[in-house]
Amino acid sequence: MENVLRPLIVVGGSVLLALLVGWAVDQVLRRTDARHHETPLWGLLRRCRLPLVLVMSAAGLRGTYRQVRWDALQNHATGVGQLLTLVLIGASAWLIIRIASAVVEATYARYAASTRDAARVRRVRTQVSLMMRIVTAVVGVLAAGAMLLTFPDLRAIGTSMLASAGLIGIVAGVAAQSTLGNLFAGFQIAFGDMVRIGDTVVVDGEWGVIDEVTLTYLSVRTWDERRITMPVSYFTSQPFENWSRGGAQMTGTVYFHLDHRAPIPAMRDKLRAIVEGCPAWDQRNWGLAVTDTTPSTLEVRAVVTAKDASDIWTVRVTVREQMIDWLSREHPYALPRINTGPAAAVPNGIPSHRLVKEGRVPRTGRG
Description:
By secondary structure, this protein is an alpha+beta fold. It folds into three domains: 2-114, no CATH class; 151-247, SH3 type barrels (Roll); 250-334, Alpha-Beta Plaits. 59% of the residues lie in helices and 15% in strands. It has 13 helices and eight strands. Strands 4-3-2-1-5 form a five-stranded antiparallel sheet. The chain has a three-stranded antiparallel sheet with strand order 6-8-7, covered by helices on one side. The longest helix has 38 residues, at 77-114. The model is unreliable at 158-165, 170-177 and 363-367 (pLDDT under 50).
């Protein structure tokens, strides 16, 4: 009977105690979150219940497993203790990452709720996401190192390996040069405020919005829902356009090529009516002017403004569509034409092909 009750008491007691502690902590966090809705930290910390229970269970079993008087367990006590130690280290790293994630997300949520500047919010969001990845990487490396140090053979080998650590470091640095370059570029982007999540950029002729930033790569979502993944070193070594830098407000242009008889004053009145009826216009500025002329057309430029890149696209296409529709209905003569004329008369009986060849009569016709 003792061979049955003792394992049940040792194993069951450790697991039950861990479950009770996890349940009690979860209840305290739930009630605290209910009383303080303005602080999301307590609700986020509830996600730590599972790793907390695992840590408590591993710690309890690590300290009491030798009390189980099973011959099979006694014969492999060292291996079982090693396994429980590894589980304890891994669970502790998981718990630390969950706690750090809850604290970081709660801090960002409070900052985002109290700040109206969208650019600052995106900058903090980028920095927070990269810092969380750094914390995860550091904790993971430390946990892996702690696990390796629990093996006596590896601990002895590590002493002899220190002598060649310098050479190994040089070789690893040369082999991972591009990776390390991307890593340091990620730090530069995170704290140099070069690009942020949500920024509108143009890279390699592609227009898109940055929707993910890591320590090694960035993901750009294009207007047609494609994802362009680029190394972060590109943004520190190549020129690119950041339309959100210094503010998201933008000015857009729409060009029209029209006949010389185009009614410019009437077009200004129509442009004003179009932008005033467009919800995407931010009411900052608009204008219309003749910017160039050719022997056959006028170049007319309309200038409009909007609060961001998405809205400026909407305003531009709205102005282009409605202005062309209005001109075709109200002023069709203003649309560009290809002028043609009748052939010149032949003077004094000279063949026309000779006059054209000599340049005395211009060539005529369509084209």
